[in-house]
Amino acid sequence: MRSLLLSLVLLALPSAPLLARDKPTPLPVPAHAVIGVEDRHLTADYWIKKLQQPNRVVLDRQAIAAQNGRLHQQDGSVHDVEGLPASFSAEQVRDWVGKLSSAPTRTLYDVKGQEVGKAALDAIVANAALDAVPATTQARYALVVKRADLRAFPTRTRVFRSNDDTDIDRFQESALFPGTAVVIVHGSRDGQWSFVVSPLYAAWVENQYLAEGARDTVFAYGHRTPTLVVTGPTVHTVHTPEQPGVSELQLDMGVRVPLLKDWPADKPVNGQHPYTSWVIELPIRGAGDKLELVPALLPKNADVATEYLPLTQANLLQQGFKFLGERYGWGHSYNTRDCSGFVSEVYRSFGVELPRNTSDQGVSPALNRVAFTDQDDRAKRMQVVRDLQVGDLIYIPGHVMMVIGKENGQTYLIHDTTGITYKNPQGQIVRASLNAVSVTPLEPLLAGSDKTFVDRIYSIQRIRP
What we know:
Blueprint: H1 44-48, E1 57-59, H2 61-74, E2 87-89, H3 90-100, H4 118-126, E3 136-138, E4 140-144, E5 148-151, E6 172-176, E7 181-187, E8 193-197, E9 202-206, E10 210-213, H5 215-221, E11 227-230, E12 234-236, E13 250-252, E14 256-258, E15 277-285, E16 291-299, E17 304-305, E18 311-312, H6 313-321, H7 339-348, H8 358-361, E19 368-371, H9 378-385, E20 393-396, E21 399-407, E22 410-423, E23 429-441, H10 453-456, E24 459-462
Antiparallel strand pairs: 1-18, 2-3, 4-7, 4-10, 5-6, 7-8, 8-9, 11-14, 11-17, 12-13, 15-16, 19-24, 20-21, 20-24, 21-22, 22-23
GO molecular function: cysteine-type peptidase activity
Keywords: Hydrolase, Protease, Signal, Thiol protease
């Protein structure tokens, strides 16, 4: 999952090397303090016009399927939830839960800036009920019914490492989206939370966001056709008092839901005529909180497609810029996303699966990786940086950026970041707090007093042949 505080997102892709290898020119610092960025840089069309073959397919569906297959075979950070066994040993469950829910060892603060005391932390840890794991646990299955936080502990309590910063909740891990299939392997002591294994993450989720069902029903949902794919940053179902479980439900970019194409054209859905909407099927918690699948309406003006988008440089830029200005949300908090969540959801709209955390994304063996070590100097990194293409992903510790183009010898990125640091033309250190999906150049950015972002690059992942 983890994006670090600095989260940039870089959009670069195949075809000819981005742009001319101009010698970098000094960048202006506008009044908004984001170096080298003017209004023209803040649209996808500006960067698309610079490309020679913006609509050329980078990876076709067969190549994407092959890459996703490699991811599941070679990358231990993702889970083949359908392939998990029907039961688990106590050792396996304790390993999953214990890795995430071990007692904190450093001072933490609450939303009021007060230190979280030992008794409160002990109670949170105890609610994980590691001492109550049975010798054998039978797998249970569920679909997520509403966007849900994934937590390190079974608690809503938000905690922070500083008493003056309440943005980075250290118990927040990620989020799950409606229709995601999960395997339940453990429950909290208070009975309000489940520890689940999802395709990209294993963590705690509140039971109110899960609908349990038979294994075959749960997994069949994700294989249903035809489908709709969300291609906007978010879309929402229509309001319906008749079925609150699917009323104004948020679906995020890349979420794929079954389309009820054979629904009678004049048959109402939850009290509303369907001719202005798509009729889709969504999971809810029905009688006894068990899984039910019900129809819902998604307006036909919603930003959706009937299949994953073609993976082209133009589409990558358009999809990335749809998030421009969205608030940064560590671990998908604030109902938004962080740097790795941002690039994951952009690529998910093309059917491309990525690991959740930057630490896993950056080293995944399933992708087309260029790796760097401490022995590689800046010149070697710059040699690769000069050839970056739209859609390429750049990794520094705790952060990922996506390339969007080149201008005047500078590499430009789109990314979800808390802020940037650089030296202005007078040599002064400037910090611009952004907390949003932003556009910035790469080369001027500093990572500490004596290192640049370029110096800290340890990996570049190319989602291309």
